[in-house]
Every structure is written in C-alpha cells, then in structure tokens.
Write a structure and sequence with these properties.
Length: about 800
C-alpha cells in the first residue's frame, strides 16, 4: 500500500503527508527568513542589470555569501530548504527580465518544483503612468518646480561642503545660478555641488521616488557624524526633480563630479530617458567668467557639463512660458519659497535671497534693524514690531521660530491684512524652505495677529511638501508656540509695563477674544493675567501708594494719568475687608464712569473699581468670573453695606451736595410706597431706601447689564411685535433706591403731602424725572427725548411767574 501511494500524483496525496511535511517548521522558517534577506540586494542588482550597468549573471558576492552557502547546507538536510533555494535562484534569474511576463514565468518555474512553497513576486508599475501622476497630479501649483529644483541644488551644495570639510579642503564657491530666456523658452539652473556620475544619474533620476539626499542623511546618521549637514538637507521623497516636467517639453541634465568626465541625461517625461557622455567645461560657470556658457545655449549634441556640479535645462512649454521662462515670475517664486536657502541663489546675475534666516541665529546676534526688515518681509507689514521672540526647542519637537507682536492692529488701518478661516499669520518652513504661508490650523484664532516664521524639522509633510499630514502633531506644534508666546507677553508685561500697556491698547481685543472664544478652556488661565483695565485709582496713587489726589494735583497741574491695572495687581492691593473685584461698565469713557452714583460707596470705602469702556469687556468679565479666589462683580449689582467707617469718612469730608438730615424710617417707607404706586406705577419692580448713596438722589438697581442692552439693540433691527414686547418688559424690569438724606427727597416728600394741587403736580413731575435721571446714570434709557416735555414743565414751575402780563 505504501508503494502505491508513492506512485500517486501530488494532488492525491493524503492530508497526513502534508501535516508531516509542515511539521518541520524550524528549517522552513529559516529558509523563508533567508529569502527575505536576499531580496533587498537582489532588487538593487536587478535595476542595474536592466539598465545594462552590470552583468546579468548572479553576482559572486551573493553566490558566495554566508546567506546562500548556509541555505545550501540546509538544503542538503531538508527538502523544504532546497525548495527555498530554488525559489531564490528563480528570483535571481528573473531579476533582470524586462517584461513582467518573463519575470512571472521565471518565478513560477523556480517555485513549481515543490508543492506548498510560497512564490515571491514583485509589484509591477507602469513607469510612464507613474511619471504622469508625479508630474501632473502631485502638486497644486506649477510654480513649485522652482522650489524643488532649488532645494535639490542646495542639497548638492551641502553634500559638497560636507565632503570637502571632512577632508579639510576648500570647496570653492558654493552657489546656485538661475537664468531664464523668454525668447528661447528655457529655464536653466546650475549648482557647483557634488555632481553625479553615470551610476548616480541612473540611480537618482532613472528611479522615481529614490532620494539621494535621504540616502546621504541615512549614511551620516549611521556613521554618527555630520549632524549639521544632515539638518541642512532638504529633500527626502525623491520626486521633486520630476516637477520640472509640469512645465517642460524636455529636460536635459548635464553633470560632472569634477573628475573630467561629464554625462548628459535627457527625457521628455514619456517614461524613457537617454544617457550619453558629454564634454566638461574647463572652469566653473557659477560665479565664473561670463564667457562660459551657462544658459543652455549649447545644442543637444555638443552640450557640456559644469567642471563640477549639475546643470538642469528646461525646455519650457509654450503654455507655461509666463511661469517658467519669465524672469519676474521666477523671481517672485524664489522670494516666496526659497528666500532663506542656505546658499546664494542668483537669478540672471542678481542675488534673490539676500535676507538671512534670522530664526537660525541667537537673539543677541540679530539687530533691531535686521529684525524690522525681516518682520516686514515675512509679515507684509509697514509698521515696526513691538516685541520679538526668538524661540527654539529640541523636545518634544525640533523647532526654530522667530515670532513678532505687531505694534499696530493688522486688521485695521490703511495696510490692513487679515487672515481667513483657520489661517494664521505665521509662515511654516521646514529646513528653510517654505511649506505654507499663513499656515492653516497652526494657531488658535485669537492668535492670528502673530507674525513670523516657524521652522520645524519634524513637521509631517505630504509627498508634494505643500500640506501637512499628521493633524495631531500639528496641533501639538501649535500649542507649543501659542503657550510660549503667551508666556513671553507675560514676561514683557512685567519687565516693560508701560510699553506693554501701549501695545495692549491696540491689540488687547485679541487677548479678550481668547478669553471668551471657543478655545478659552485651553488658554483662559494663562490669558487672564495679560488683561489690562483702566482703574478708579490714578497712576500717581498706584506708584506712591498715597491717598486719592485731585485732577489738578501732579506735575505742572496736569490731570493725573489713568492707571492700567491687571487683575493680579488689583488683588494684591485690595483692602483687608474687600471680598470681591469690582468693575463698572461705562461706554462713555472715564469721565462718565467717575460721575456714576454707583461709585459713591466704593469711593467712601476706599475700594478700587475697574472701568470697562469696550462693549466686549463685560463678556470678558462674565467668562473670567473668578480670579485668585475673588469673584468679579459689577458695582451696579454689588450688595455693599454702608458701615460706620464709611459714614465717618463721609462726615469728615463734609456733607455732599443736597445732603442734610435724613428722613425718618416711617416717612421714608411712605415715600417709597408713593413712588411705586402713585408716581411710577408699573414702571419699577420696587422702591426702597438706599444706604450707599452720598450725593445722588436715586439709583437704578436690578436692571439689565450693559452687554444685554447691546444685544437687545441689535435684535431690535430684526424683531417682530411679540419679541419687541418681551424686550420692552425686560428693559423696564428694574428697581429704584432713594437717598433719604438728599434734599430732593425731602422736598418731594413735603410736596406730595401738601394740599396744594400745584405742589402735588410738581412732586409727580420731579419724581418721574428722578427716575429717568437714574436710568440715564445706569445707561438704561434708550431715548432721552421723552424727558424733554417734562423738563420744560419743571422749569416752568421752578421759575417765578411774571408779575405783568406779556405784551401782545
């Protein structure tokens, strides 16, 4: 039975045989591991064999390597190892095949000798289609071909510099020269870098997505040397060169490594290229004699390569003539993308990158003049920066940044230049090459005023280097920059308070936006100390710690300067008995705020009050709510009690205008009832006696805040009748407090109790006017014209009647 089974075909063998064969797992595992290790060098050998650079025979190094020998020894002991060796030989035999069909046949033949053995195949690519994708679908703007070619030239120069410095030699002039010829439709870029040999041209230009720059960086990293050179290398994807085909009918590359041998690589972007030897110039064209031909004027056969370096000649398409062959267009592109390349870039005999990459320098190495010039260049601004921050970090991200705080609001004025959507005012660079101007999603909206440059080597780019890929990493980068800039502003505010206060007067609206905005949860705590407010205390009082002075006091009799106060400073100098931080909204400015009746008691107690002039300020206070354990409270709604010390202070200062003997408690109760039921029926929610008034007869309480009033006025333009009624009810929902010691209150009380109808009429008119005056002081009276008729009647009553009739 056993012999008959051996004669059966492979497909009819029992399952137990397969289980027995598969049970020899260590040898099989070793064989597969060897195959995978052997594939890497074979792929490189295959590319060279297809190009005709090496023999199609299996390389001796591979044939005699310990990997192959070890596999052969294993094959002598195990049939599965033998099958793996045959598979490996099959792959090697088919590696140089030109067509995919022949390779598939070779691979299948090598693995068909033993059933159950894995077959290894290579992915096939339609080269012409791949090149078409890279050329026409990878980049958004055609102009970026200039950036890519300049970056390649810069990398070649950096390699040359590193190679010569390692040998202690002088590399000579290292620069990039670009010439344009609109008539001939040619764009030529030449560098004096390392140059390329025949093998380099095949490997670097003949293989799409193979980056010679990245291989150079990997080599330096593996050797543990050349850190500076590796950080200056730009390229890493191996596709930038092919962007030239976006604007070119044909691209010619002339190159020499300085050994006197030149090579010409040429392609029309159709999936094939030609390679031929060419002459070499006797001297370097870059920065050399004008007699040397550097603009691609040589014919196709007699063109020469630079004595050392590479020249790329683009024969520009007619449709792209204005982009690639016009000097002004190329100059704009150079200044946009490659303004800070580390080597000189000359266009038609004139240098274009004459501004240094200041973010790579230390702060003490940059003068104010250079910083201002740089700020105006990158920010498109006309003003000078108020502050500048040099910032660098190596962890968690490698960042080099130069950030500016404008002295003028960039969204206002003649030269206003705002940003849109999620854009920022920062230009994002990677190794000195522009990735995004007004980088999107980098900073929160309230930081859009920041101008400058951020250079991050770790930034995750897509293959076209035009957009970012890892949104989480970009978010982290933005958080680092934002928090560092906020910290820097806090430092400036402490070291240069006057300069910071001047800057805040123009730019503080952005800080307030950050406190109230969508991202306030992340940055509010760090932004609150940056807020500044006008204060009821004068600047001289803050500096000297003296008692309040009159406006006539001070230097030369000039009014005292208002103090700009932070919440930290306010809390630090609060009296012992003060529990809250008080503020007053006054859209009419400081003079209006100082005359407010709501300040009378706080002034008597010696409490400082913050003055808010902007409409958004009250929203800011509502978002802050509490600072260092103190609540932020409007003095209009603050529940302050008139203590004995405040009364003594008021008595020592003398009685205020209109102040006299206070009405008794019973009389005051009746007067309040008369105000609520007779004088102002339905217009107030309640009337009571006040203990915090000094010089004012009355004040409004429980009224809508300033922010709500502004909101109501805005809604008025779109409201219907029902909404109008509700808003009017909200507007009139307020109470009234009366000053029992004021002369007007005593006069009204006497007039209302009089039997004279004329006196009772006067009491009614004055009571209504007192109420409207309180509404005006609180900013709750929308239209003061309704008072005009009543004021005329009061004036008529106040003046003595004429003794003789008027003359007809």
């Amino acid at each position: 039975g056993g012999q008959s089974r051996q004669g059966e075909s492979q497909q009819h063998r029992p399952r137990s045989c397969y289980r027995e064969a598969n049970s020899i797992s260590p040898a099989m595992t070793r064989a597969r591991y060897v195959v995978r290790r052997a594939l890497a060098p074979l792929k490189a050998w295959r590319a060279e064999a297809a190009a005709g650079l090496v023999s199609h025979n299996l390389p001796g190094a591979v044939r005699q390597s310990p990997v192959t020998v070890g596999l052969g020894r294993s094959a002598a002991l195990n049939p599965h190892a033998m099958s793996s060796l045959r598979t490996l030989r099959g792959i090697a035999a088919s590696a140089h095949a030109v067509s995919s069909d022949s390779e598939s046949r070779g691979t299948t033949q090598g693995g068909a000798e033993s059933a159950g053995v894995e077959e290894v195949h290579s992915f096939q690519a339609e080269t012409r289609r791949l090149l078409d994708i890279v050329t026409n679908s990878l980049y958004t703007d055609k102009e970026v071909f200039v950036r890519e070619l300049v970056s390649n030239a810069s990398d070649a120069l950096e390699k040359c510099r590193h190679a010569h410095l390692a040998k202690g030699a002088d590399p000579g002039a290292l620069e990039v020269t670009i010439t344009t010829d609109d008539a001939l439709r040619r764009f030529t870029i030449t560098d004096s870098g390392m140059g390329m040999s025949r093998a380099d041209l095949v490997s670097n230009l003949g293989t799409i997505a193979r980056s010679g720059s990245k291989a150079f960086v990997d080599e330096l990293s593996a050797g543990g040397e050349g850190a500076t050179a590796s950080t200056n290398i730009i390229g890493k994807f191996g596709v930038g060169f092919y962007s030239a085909f976006m604007v070119s009918e044909r691209v010619d590359v002339f190159s020499s490594t300085g050994d006197g041998v030149g090579w010409k690589w040429s392609s029309s972007g159709d999936g094939t290229y030609t390679l031929a030897s060419c002459g070499v110039e006797l001297r370097a064209p870059v920065g050399g004699n004008a007699d040397a031909k550097t603009n691609g004027e040589e014919d196709e056969v007699g063109g020469k390569a630079p004595w050392r370096g590479t020249r790329v000649v683009l024969h520009v398409k007619e449709a792209d003539r204005a982009i690639a062959a016009a000097g002004w267009a190329v100059e704009n592109t150079l200044k946009k993308y490659s303004a800070f390349v580390g080597f000189p870039v000359n266009l038609n005999g004139r240098r274009t990158n004459d501004i240094d990459a200041l973010w790579t320098k230390r702060a003490n190495e940059v003068s104010d003049e250079d910083a201002t010039t740089f700020y105006r260049f990158v920010g498109g601004a006309l003003d000078a920066p108020a502050f500048r921050l040099h910032f660098s970090a190596d962890a968690p991200l490698t960042i080099r940044a130069l950030l500016f705080a404008p002295s003028e609001n960039p969204e206002k004025g003649f030269a206003a230049r705002g940003v849109e959507g999620d854009q920022s005012g920062l230009s994002l660079y990677s190794r000195r090459v522009l990735i995004q101007a007004n980088a999107r999603g980098l900073l929160p909206g309230f930081m859009r005023w920041v101008r400058g440059v951020v250079d991050c080597e770790d930034v995750p780019l897509n293959i076209s280097r035009e957009s970012l890929q890892d949104s989480d990493l970009v978010r982290r980068l933005g958080e680092i920059i934002t928090r560092r800039m906020i910290k820097f502003l806090g430092e400036r505010a402490k070291k240069e308070p006057e300069r910071y206060a001047e800057w805040y007067a123009k730019m503080g609206v952005f800080i307030k936006e950050g406190v109230c905005g969508d991202q306030s949860y992340a940055y509010k705590e760090s932004l609150v100390p940056l807020l500044r407010f006008d204060s009821s205390r004068k600047q001289e009082e803050v500096e000297e710690g003296s008692e309040p002075k009159s406006e006539a006091d001070g230097d030369g009799g000039k009014p005292a300067k208002p103090a700009q106060v932070s919440l930290d400073e306010y809390v630090a100098r609060m009296p012992a008995g003060q529990k809250d931080i008080y503020y007053l909204v006054s859209s009419g400015g400081r003079k209006q705020a100082e005359s407010s009746p709501y300040l009378e008691l706080t002034r008597a107690k010696g409490y400082e009050v913050l003055f808010l002039y902007a409409h958004v300020d009250e929203f800011v206070m509502q978002h802050v709510r509490r600072h260092k354990g103190k609540d932020l409270v409007s003095v209009e709604v603050a529940e302050l009690e008139d203590d004995a010390d405040a009364k003594k202070e008021g008595d020592a200062d003398g009685k205020s205008e209109g102040e006299g003997e206070a009405l008794g408690e019973e009389a005051m109760e009746k007067l309040c009832q008369w105000f609520a039921e007779k004088a102002l029926p339905g217009r107030v929610t309640g009337v009571k006696s006040s203990s915090r008034l000094r010089s004012s007869p009355a004040l409004l309480v429980g009224h809508e805040p300033e922010a709500m009033r502004r909101y109501r006025l805005m809604l008025t333009m779109m409201q219907d009748d029902a909404t109008a009624t509700k808003l009017d009810d909200l507007q009139s929902a307020a109470g009234l407090e009366l000053n029992p010691r004021h002369a007007i209150m005593r006069a009204i009380d006497a007039a209302r109790a009089s039997s004279d109808p004329e006196a009772q009429r006067a009491a009614q008119l004055v009571a209504e006017q007192v109420f409207d005056n309180a509404r005006v002081a609180a900013g709750a009276l929308s239209d003061p014209r309704e008072m005009v008729g009543r004021i005329n009647q009061i004036l008529e009553l106040a003046l003595p009647k004429p003794s003789t009739p008027p003359i007809p």
